[in-house]
Every structure is written in C-alpha cells, then in structure tokens.
Amino acid sequence: MDEFRWYRPKTLAPDPFARAVADCRTVCEWLAPYLILRGPAGTGVPLFSERQWVSFNGDGSALGAVEPLVPYEWPVKDRWVPSATYEVYCNTYAMDMAFLIERQSNALDMYGGQHCTTNNHPYTLAITACLVVFKHCFPKVFLIEADSTEQRYFLDGMIACHLVLGYGLDFACGG
C-alpha cells in the first residue's frame, strides 16, 4: 500500500470536525505502544487541534539507521494475533509523507482531493484509522480511495477504530 487519496469540501463543519479530531487522537494514543508517531516533519509530537487540523508522520529520528523489524499484531485477550493486512515486517522507525487533514483547506487539488504516500511504513495504520474516523464523522462528504481502492488496506484501521471507538467495521472505500 502506497497512496491514500481523499476528497472533501474546502471547509468541514466545525462540530463533526472537532469530534473527528478527538477520535483520531484517542485511536492514535491507543496505537502508541504499537507504532511511533511524530509531528508532520517526523520529529516532535503529532498535532491534533479540534479547530484546525490533524497532522502526523512516522518517526524520522532514525532515518538511515537499521532498526529491529516488528510484525503488526493485535492484542486479543491474553494473546497476540497477526494483523489482517500487513503480512510483512515493518521498520518501526520510518517516515514518509505527512498526513494532514485541515478543517479549512486551500491545498485541495482541482478535484477537491488530498493525498498521503506512506510506502507502507507503520504509521500507515494510524492513517487508515483516521480516515475511517473522518468517513464516519463526514459520511456524505468524505470520499476515500487507496491504491486500487482496495478495502483490505483499511482492515487494521477499521479494527482499531472498532476496538477503541466502537465504530468502523462498516467503513467502505469510495463514496
């Protein structure tokens, strides 16, 4: 999985936006033991502003370093189960393009879209969870695509949202 695209209006309504940001923060905090999230430049802390934006990236502090590889697995009761979609081992210290959703955006392309390329780094899981959240909070105006619009790339994000927020299993790519 390499690229996610989403289409939305230039301005998102403030109340559902605040809820989406709060839910993104909640699910990202829950994911913290499993992956490293940093600010948009790969350093600092992720940005969650209920009036302005959600923005984060992977960890850029160890770029070029060889770090231990860890599998994506989910805690289920007293054991760990393999992830639904990530069959490869991923470097926990990796960043690519920053994920950013703003309440008011002037950075939309001519189709009203934005995108984020991740090269399948671990923070992809947080991105899929946040896209599930935004689709839940803006069901009629948020259209989300992935490479080939494959639903399976969102399974782990859907599971994370379901476990933490109580919704997400009904997520579907597209309109």
Structural summary, described in words:
- The protein is of the alpha+beta class.
- A hairpin with a 3-residue loop joins strand 2 and strand 3.
- About 15% of the residues have low confidence.
- It is 25% helix and 21% strand.
- Strands 9-1-10 form a three-stranded antiparallel β-sheet, with no helix packed on it.
- It has three helices and ten strands.
- It has one domain.
Strand content: 15-25%
User: With helices defined by DSSP (H or I, 4 residues minimum), what is the helix count?
Assistant: 3
Q: In oligomeric terms, what are we looking at?
A: single chain
What structural category characterises the helix and strand content?
alpha+beta
Q: How many individual domains?
A: 1
Give the biggest beta sheet: 3 strands, antiparallel
How far from one another are the termini?
Answer: 20 Å
Instruction: Report low-confidence residues grouped into runs of 5 or more.
Output: 65-72, 75-93
Give average pLDDT, whole number.
78
DSSP E strands, number: 10
Please state how the strands of the largest beta sheet are arranged side by side: 9-1-10
Q: What is the string of helix and strand elements? A: EHEEEEEEEEHEH
What's the helical proportion of residues?
Answer: 10-25%
**Structural Rg:** 15 Å
Using the alpha-carbon principal axes, give the shape.
globular
